[in-house]
Design the sequence.
């Protein structure tokens, strides 16, 4: 496996870009898939957003300055693409992004790729009641076990704010799950 510095050099080299990009996809496809899936919920939508994410990465890799980890930059793009996707759908259907999330959760039960049970479905419903930032923080910490330091790079905010958001999100989810 190549290290991140070598991979970046190869991605910025015209001769090696294609091969390096395939390596990048192999390294990050699954993690980014599940990160996006936690946001947009549907398998098909996740595939679309993942493809858009990699297209954006491919077109903009020369702009990556290396101020953060490559992983953080990829996650930031995937997060932004996911939010853009939700907002575009909401606008197209003339409903709020919260309503889009609720529709996605309602559709999970008929999604052949959703292997969750009633408890997981109820957890997804609870997460959907959170404000966008709390949803992102909760998903990244709970499902992906991303460190606050890396999350701060991805979401471009402080670790303290993220810890507070996660704590509040957990309390709201607990309240949702324990109500009648």
Sequence:
């Amino acid at each position: 496996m190549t290290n991140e510095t070598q991979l970046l050099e190869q991605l910025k080299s015209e001769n090696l870009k294609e091969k390096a990009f395939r390596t990048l996809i192999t390294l990050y496809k699954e993690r980014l898939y599940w990160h996006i899936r936690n946001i947009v919920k549907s398998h098909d939508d996740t595939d679309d957003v993942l493809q858009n994410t990699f297209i954006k990465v491919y077109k903009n890799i020369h702009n990556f300055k290396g101020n953060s980890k490559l992983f953080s930059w990829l996650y930031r793009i995937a997060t932004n693409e996911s939010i853009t996707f939700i907002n575009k759908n909401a606008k197209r259907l003339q409903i709020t992004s919260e309503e889009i999330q609720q529709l996605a959760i309602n559709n999970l039960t008929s999604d052949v790729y959703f292997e969750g049970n009633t408890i997981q479905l109820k957890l997804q419903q609870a997460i959907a009641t959170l404000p966008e930032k709390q949803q992102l923080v909760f998903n990244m910490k709970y499902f992906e076990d991303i460190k606050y330091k890396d999350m701060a790079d991805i979401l471009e905010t402080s670790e303290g704010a993220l810890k507070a958001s996660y704590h509040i999100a957990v309390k709201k989810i607990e309240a949702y799950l324990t109500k009648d």
About this structure: Residues 83 and 144 are 18 Å apart (CA to CA). The mean pLDDT is 88. The domain at 4-178 is CATH 1.10.1740.10 (Rna Polymerase Sigma Factor; Chain: A).
